[in-house]
Amino acid sequence: xxxxxxxxxxxxxxxxxxxxxxxxxxxxxxxxxxxxxxxxxxxxxxxxxxxxxxxxxxxxxxxxxxxxxxxxxxxxxxxxxxxxxxxxxxxxxxxxxxxxxxxxxxxxxxxxxxxxxxxxxxxxxxxxxxxxxxxxxxxxx
Length: 141
Hints:
Elements: E1 3-4, H1 10-14, E2 21-22, H2 24-36, H3 64-82, E3 86-101, E4 107-121, E5 127-136
């Protein structure tokens, strides 16, 4: 089976050339990244594609546990619905405050969200695991 790299090389496809391919693991990892960086309703044909991370991006009032649970449930639901190559999917989210030295005397604090996704590849019955990290408020990766 062929798995295509994201972003797709549309220019090659239009020229009837072979698009860039990747491994099953890379394809699943990139698809998880795509789900995590898409907001609900972004795809016209499927409003359920994406995750809730965009809804909490500027949420500085909610506690860490509430953010973790909200993001974890949202990504888990999206992966179960859309990533058919994995089973026994588990999502572990941690939220950490990172401090950045600014150009001035003031430092900036941002929340880093680490998302670990693990499961079993249906095709090979092998373990799968990947980690995505984002800074929220505003979202950056």
